[in-house]
Design brief:
This protein is α+β, with helices and mostly antiparallel strands and 397 residues long. Helices cover 31% and strands 19% of the residues. Strand 7 and strand 8 form a beta hairpin.
């Protein structure tokens, strides 16, 4: 067992011919402590994200700061020698991406300035509203609007949307991801409703990210031809930024419940946010139709972990309440109606096993709404979906 030796122990060891060398632990300077602490932050980033921090305007500001800091450590021999014993991940072997900067003389504020971030004299730990040059560009694109010459064609639509928000048919929900930005979608940004009237051809940025030019109409009679990523950044930056859902229908068989009615559940229609090529290319048509006896929000919780939801987040497009009806029988009936448009897609689950979900259909929303109307009137059993004409057709008995 190892233990500390006192002076008597040292004398005894000397009698036995064993030399005792006093080991001195060199104290680190405050600068060395800061270098080590900075390197440990980079290691934590690697552990949490599975990769070293990277440069790029579309990266989180702290990731970009860590990337420059890592370049600085790689560049300076003093820093390399200090942290090499700690570098079990091989971080020091990476490329030197910022060698052209005078890294020796840059403090955190100077580094942030190189990254295009205004600090207003605050310390790094006190930053509250950092803005990259990409964020500034996004803000400028949102602010630089022109008068919408054909706004009269959009004005009734905005008025209807407001009525549906007031009645609860539509809701506002937090904006979550870029995939939500599609033609026909509605958002609230800068305190105004924004309607994506057009979406141009998808392009690839210098950083390998997808982007597209949009025509966005605002409810104050202006419009902007902003980029999709600019709208995304504006929504993320705006604490009140929201997306507006599609209108929901009321109770399935009547406009309001009657005392004694037994709630049976909810038909839900979902749209996938998956990046799968088949889904991405047909996002407005690919819908999951299901029936649940719990709240739809609970049903879709953790959707990105479930193969039945294509291992991706989903958007609630429409819901219809059920009363006094068998959920399982109705779900089978709906699926049989849309069987000709069932989506054949294979998804890998979390364990790498192939799964073929069965509740996804390549069908427009209006056809689903038509089916609900047929259910209300009791005639749905006489209809089948025709993929060629994209509507319900009455089949021969």
């Amino acid at each position: 067992m190892a233990k500390d030796f006192n002076d008597d122990d040292d004398a005894l060891l000397a009698e036995l011919g064993v030399e005792v060398e006093a080991k001195k632990v060199a104290a680190r300077t405050p600068r060395q402590e800061r270098i080590i602490a900075g390197f440990e932050e980079i290691q934590r980033f690697l552990a949490e994200n599975g990769r070293a921090p990277q440069h790029g305007e579309d990266r989180d500001i702290f990731e970009r700061l860590y990337a420059v800091r890592l370049d600085r450590i790689r560049e300076l021999q003093e820093c390399r020698e200090l942290v090499e014993p700690l570098d079990k991940e091989g971080l020091l072997k990476g490329a030197k991406q910022a060698a052209e900067l005078d890294l020796e003389n840059l403090d955190d504020d100077a580094l942030l300035a190189e990254l295009g971030v205004e600090t207003d004299g605050r310390q790094l730990t006190e930053l509250k509203h950092v803005r990259s040059t990409a964020d500034k560009k996004a803000a400028e694109e949102v602010a630089n609007r022109e008068r919408c010459e054909d706004f009269e064609t959009f004005k009734p639509f905005f008025e209807q949307v407001q009525k549906e928000l007031d009645s609860g048919q539509r809701e506002t929900r937090p904006f979550e991801m870029k995939a939500e930005i599609e033609k026909g979608r509605l958002f609230i940004v800068g305190g105004q409703k924004a309607y994506v009237a057009e979406k141009g051809e998808t392009t690839i940025t210098d950083h390998g990210r997808t982007d597209a030019r949009l025509r966005v109409i605002f409810d104050n009679g202006t419009e902007s031809n902003m980029l999709m990523r600019s709208l995304q950044r504006a929504l993320n930056r705006d604490e009140a930024g929201r997306r507006i859902t599609e209108p929901t229908a009321g109770p399935l068989f009547s406009d309001q419940t009657i005392d004694g009615d037994e709630a049976s559940g909810t038909i839900y229609v979902l749209r996938s946010m998956s990046d799968h090529p088949l889904v991405a290319a047909n996002r407005e048509l690919v819908h999951k139709i299901g029936v649940t006896n719990m709240s739809v929000e609970k049903r879709i919780a953790g959707a990105h972990l479930q193969p039945t939801f294509l291992m991706a987040n989903v958007e609630i497009v429409a819901t219809y309440e059920l009363y006094n009806i068998s959920r399982s029988k109705l779900e089978k009936l709906i699926h049989r109606v849309f069987e000709p448009a069932r989506l054949e897609i294979e998804i890998m689950d979390r364990f790498g096993r192939p799964v073929v979900p069965r509740e996804w259909f390549l069908v427009p929303l209006f056809a689903i709404q038509d089916a609900v109307e047929r259910i209300k009137e009791g005639s749905i059993a006489d209809y089948r979906y025709d993929p060629q004409e994209a509507n319900l057709k009455k089949h021969s008995q």
